[in-house]
Design a protein that fits this description.
The chain is an alpha/beta fold. Helices cover 41% and strands 18% of the residues. Helix 3 crosses helix 4 (86-96) and helix 7 packs across helix 8. The longest helix has 19 residues, at 61-79.
Length: 334
């Protein structure tokens, strides 16, 4: 793929032409009735024309540059066998607006390995610059704190990385845990045995597992103990070696619980602690163990803290706007 650009200063009108070297891939890039191109035009305020293997971009210089990067990114993903959908287009636009991703794009242009997580059911790629950074940290660090609002992929990407390492044999067990704290409600006594009582709290972790592994493999690995999903209270007294350990909703741990959990860390293990510091459900005057741990450990060697924002939300775009409305500078305060 080559490019021809008319010189333009920032803020001026510009025209750029992209020539694609594999025209047979363009129907996937353009989408049915050119819906992908229309989506990019509407989001970035540019005008796109397509003739044969050439795509022309017209509009403000900065917007044209972003649209060019988005098309380049989507084309590269199609070459790798990925499917382009509305969510991926939104993610590509968000990533094109992030200068922090420039180095990643350039490395992939040089045919170096792309940042991705492979599981039995899918190959997962980053949908924001911070997700790309997070996925890199998941592959390198021993203990990671992932902080940020709902919908940013904190837990999902951690589960995907854990499943990938379990499949390849890098770890022998996958341990998923959450504190059993209700979100502002009191459910009272729940019927059934212990598993029946705690499973509702752990359902989001099961959902992520079933999205990364076929159902029969999840059931088999749960039965054999390779995958364990348990409430935080069950972690006391254990040493978790050769394991990938994930603590979700960590903002709802107390300081003693967080200390107990972190000190379970064993040899040849990875640990990811996920939570949203702004959604603490502990009864007052409880101090969140997540906030306390990050303050104490952020600069300790071998640990990493990744902070997501509403700009990294990869659910429906309206979720990011909801987060901003509740937590942004203009939010209504009680």
């Amino acid at each position: 793929m080559s490019r021809k650009s008319a010189p333009a200063r920032s803020g001026e009108q510009s025209r750029t032409e992209i020539i694609f070297d594999r025209p047979q891939l363009l129907p996937q890039l353009f989408g049915q009735f050119d819906q992908n191109l229309v989506a990019i035009e509407n989001r970035l305020g540019v005008y796109i024309t397509a003739r044969g293997d050439k795509v022309g971009l017209d509009g403000p210089a900065d917007n044209v540059a972003m649209a060019r990067d988005v098309l380049h990114d989507l084309y590269r993903r199609i070459q790798r066998g990925e499917d382009v959908d509305a969510g991926l287009i939104d993610a590509a636009i968000a990533m094109a607006a992030e200068p922090a991703l420039d180095g990643i794009i350039k490395r992939e242009d040089k045919a170096e390995p792309a940042i991705m997580i492979r599981t039995r059911k899918k190959t997962i790629v980053p949908r924001s610059a911070m997700q790309a950074h997070y996925m890199g940290e998941l592959a390198r660090r021993d203990i990671i704190f992932a902080l940020g609002p709902a919908g940013t992929g904190k837990t999902y990407l951690a589960v995907a990385q854990a499943v990938s390492q379990l499949i390849t044999g890098s770890v022998q067990r996958l341990i998923l845990s959450r504190p059993a704290v209700e979100a502002g409600e009191r459910l009272g006594f729940l019927p059934g045995d212990m598993k029946d009582k705690v499973d509702p709290y752990l359902r989001p972790l099961y959902d992520a597992l079933y999205d990364c592994l076929p159902a029969e493999q999840v059931e088999r690995r749960l039965a054999s103990g390779e995958i364990e999903v348990a409430p935080l209270a069950f972690m006391r007294g254990r040493t978790l070696a050769d394991a990938f350990i994930i603590l979700d909703e960590a903002q709802n741990t107390t300081v003693p619980q967080m200390k107990m959990f972190l000190t379970r860390f064993g040899m040849n293990s990875r640990m990811v602690v996920c939570g949203d510091p702004k959604q603490v459900d502990l009864p007052p005057p409880g101090t969140s163990g997540l906030a306390d741990a990050v303050a104490r450990l952020e600069h300790v060697d071998g640990m990493s803290v990744v902070r997501f924002t509403s700009a990294d939300v990869v659910r429906h775009p309206i979720v990011g706007r909801i987060v901003d409305a509740y937590e942004g500078p203009d939010a209504i305060r009680p």
